[in-house]
Design goal:
Layout lengths: L2 H9 L6 E3 L6 E4 L5 H10 L7 E9 L4 E8 L6 E8 L6 E3 L8 H12 L2 E3 L32
């Protein structure tokens, strides 16, 4: 399925989505945090889309807001999609966990929590993954102060 065909099919889900192709080969869709889980559930369950594999989940700090980027693939149909969510609340960024939809989200969400401080509701085991439990702050945020010069920029 081409990006144009994907966009037409996904747009019919009526979830108030914003589409862009940016400078990548993948169709990019931005969704509100309230519609994220519903969109992902439909992307996986729709037989024409069948996005059965979440192969990457990344946190990002835009400065004013945080975000999460999901890279999805349909193993059956061989098409890919990028789903983006922006979070305005830097003090308490929260999204619903996608582990009920894709088990691979479990590890990735722990990594994003560890480095960006984004919490995932209903995650089965949300905890620091790489940093020690007593670590203060989130080192991949732009406002992180690295007193010991551990993180190189």
């Amino acid at each position: 399925m081409t990006n144009e065909e994907l966009q037409l099919k996904i747009d019919k889900l009526n979830l108030n989505l914003e589409f862009t192709e940016e400078a990548s080969q993948f169709l990019n869709v931005t969704v509100s945090k309230e519609n994220l889980a519903e969109l992902c559930k439909r992307l996986k369950e729709d037989s024409d889309l069948s996005f059965d594999y979440l192969f990457c989940l990344t946190g990002i700090d835009y400065g004013e807001q945080l975000g999460v980027i999901y890279h999805l693939e349909s193993i059956i149909h061989r098409h890919q999609l990028v789903v983006k969510v922006n979070l305005d609340d830097r003090e308490n960024p929260v999204l619903d966990s996608l582990t009920p939809i894709w088990k691979t989200a479990e590890f990735h969400e722990m990594e994003v929590f560890d480095f960006f401080g984004i919490k995932f509701n209903n995650h089965p085991n949300l905890k620091r993954l790489f940093l020690t439990p007593d670590w203060s702050g989130f080192p991949l945020r732009k406002d992180y102060v690295d007193q010991e010069n551990i993180v190189l920029k």
